[in-house]
User: Which sequence fits this backbone?
DNA sequence: AAATTCTCCTGAAGGC
DNA sequence: TGCCTTCAGGAGAATT
């Protein structure tokens, strides 16, 4: 499931292969994604040059000279660059053809999105009110501390709220809280400044390390070259219910917090 | 404003 | 072997 490291891995994989190239064709095989894919896309993109592939939160921004294609991979989306005329398989919904190479969006669960804007994409309603990038200097313990005062939700839900900080999904929230020694269900407003410093550092460290490993592949995710991501083998608690805590040896617990499966060591995390 | 619940979808896993 | 049920999950929308 693409979180920030998977999206960034994808960006790095596709950018050098398609930046600076012009669109020769757009194929929409399935337009029923999270929102209908605009049918005007082929016309709007024809012969247009892709300047840059950027990322904001979990959105990929394909910046053309006259507008931006905003992509979200949802739960199960992935992008590959393939030779043109590669036969599509099931769930290969969209192709952007750039002459001798084809950017193909595959998304079995269709929670992803493809949007077009000719305005500043950062001012798009979906992106406008997002929190800071976790790997930027705008994200730190003080930020988490300030935003959490007076609030009662579980720190894990707080950390996964895109208005607080972007890109931290379920897997990395679990891992960061383990590394910081914070219990995922603890009320976010009752955590000290010092512990938030530690949490912010843990988030940065884990995301950086996951990006280095090419992301986490559990089922669907693939890097742009088709290889899986290798961070799964570094997961300390996620999906490890009943297994020993790598720190103290107690067994990892699992419970649902904010409708999301949460894994933690009740002894190391308070 | 903040918190919670609902919703979209498919494939995997489990039960019988 | 096969059919049915349950579940996971990003995040916007709707509701409380």
Assistant:
């Amino acid at each position: 499931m693409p979180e920030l490291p998977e999206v960034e891995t994808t960006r790095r994989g596709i950018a050098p292969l398609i930046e600076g190239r012009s669109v020769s064709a757009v194929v929409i095989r399935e337009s029923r994604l999270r929102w209908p894919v605009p049918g005007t896309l082929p016309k709007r993109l024809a012969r247009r040059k892709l300047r840059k592939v950027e990322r904001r939160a979990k959105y990929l921004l394909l910046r053309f000279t006259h507008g931006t294609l905003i992509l979200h991979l949802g739960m199960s989306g992935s992008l590959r660059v393939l030779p043109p005329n590669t036969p599509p398989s099931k769930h290969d919904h969209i192709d952007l053809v750039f002459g001798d190479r084809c950017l193909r969006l595959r998304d079995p669960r269709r929670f992803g999105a493809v949007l077009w804007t000719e305005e500043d994409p950062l001012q798009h309603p979906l992106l406008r009110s997002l929190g800071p990038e976790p790997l930027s200097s705008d994200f730190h313990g003080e930020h988490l501390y300030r935003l959490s005062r007076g609030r009662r939700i579980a720190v894990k839900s707080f950390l996964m709220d895109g208005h607080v900080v972007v890109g931290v999904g379920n897997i990395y929230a679990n891992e960061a809280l383990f590394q910081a020694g914070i219990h995922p269900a603890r009320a976010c407003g009752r955590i000290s400044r010092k512990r938030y410093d530690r949490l912010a550092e843990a988030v940065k460290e884990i995301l950086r390390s996951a990006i280095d490993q090419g992301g986490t592949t559990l089922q669907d995710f693939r890097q742009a070259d088709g290889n899986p991501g290798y961070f799964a083998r570094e997961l300390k608690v996620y999906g490890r219910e009943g297994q020993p805590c790598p720190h103290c040896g107690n067994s990892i617990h699992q419970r649902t917090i904010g409708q999301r499966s949460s894994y933690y060591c009740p002894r190391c995390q308070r």
In short: The mean pLDDT of chain A is 92. Residues 1-3, 34, 58, 72-76, 109, 111-112, 126, 160, 162, 169-170, 259-261 of chain A lie near DNA strand C (CB under 10 Å from a C1').
